[in-house]
Design a protein that fits this description.
This protein is mainly alpha-helical. It contains three helices and no strands. The protein has a domain of 47 residues. The N and C termini lie far apart (63 Å).
Length: 70
């Protein structure tokens, strides 16, 4: 890939619903290039992050009893 201006490759995993939503948004913008779309969205900070996984572990963490056993 010597001719590429962005040689670092990243991958994501999607389910069918996520892929359909991304394709719908790309159609709304009139683009067909996923790499360019993802690059623009990530650089500009568009989208939302879901911390459901982290929140569940945070809740478990704060409810742990830290007293020493007797």
């Amino acid at each position: 890939m010597p001719d590429r201006t962005r040689p670092i490759r990243k991958e994501i995993c999607l389910n069918e619903q996520g892929l359909n939503l991304i394709q719908h948004k790309m159609r709304q913008l009139g683009t067909h290039n996923f790499g360019a779309y993802a690059h623009k969205m990530l650089i500009d900070g568009y989208g939302t992050l879901h911390f459901t996984f982290h929140k569940s572990y945070y809740h478990r963490f704060i409810t742990i009893n830290f007293t020493k056993p007797s």
